[in-house]
Amino acid sequence: MNAREMKIDSAPRGGATAGRLRAVLGGLFAARALTAATTVLAVVAGGATAVKAGADETFFSRLSIAPSYESSYRVQRKAATWRQDFDVQRQSGLADLKGALRIESKEDEARNDHREWRNRFRFDADRQSALGTFKLYGSLQRNSRENINSLTVRNEDTIQLSHALALLDHDDRKLNLQLGGGWVGDRDLQESRRGGRFSQSDAQASGWIGEASLSGNWHATQALEFSSSVSWEGSVKESEAFLADTETDTTIAATDRARALALRSEAEWSAHPGLSVAVSGSYMTSSAQYFQRSVERQDTKRSNRHDFSLVVGGEPDSILSYEAEVYTSRTDYDYALLSSDKLSGREGLRAVAAYEIPRTLLAGTTVTANFDLGTRSEARENSAAYDTREHRLEGEISRPLGERMTLRARLATELIQDYYEDGGLDKDRVRDGASFVLLYRPSKRFQARGGYATKYEETINIREQRAGQNQTQEDFRVTADYQVLLPARVTVQQNFQISATYTYYIYDETKNSLTRTNRVTTKISAPLWQTTDLHFEHLYNKSDSGAYTYSGSGERAYSISSESIRQYLKAELGYRLTSELRIGASETFEVNQRDYAGRPSSSREKNTFTGEISYQREFMNGIMVNARFARTASNQEEDFWNINATVSKVFD
Amino acid sequence: MRRCRRSLISRWIVSRALLAAALLGVASGCLFQPRESEGQPDPSDQVQWIPPGTLGNALGNMERALESEAQDLTNYGRSFDDEQFELILDPADEAELGLNEFEDWSAQQEESRMSGILNSTEAELDVQWTPDDSLSQGADVRYYEDLSYRLVFEKDSEMAEYSGRCDLYFRDDGQGNWYVFRWVDKRDGSANRTWGWLRGRNMVEF
Question: Model-level pTM?
Answer without folding.
Answer: 0.77
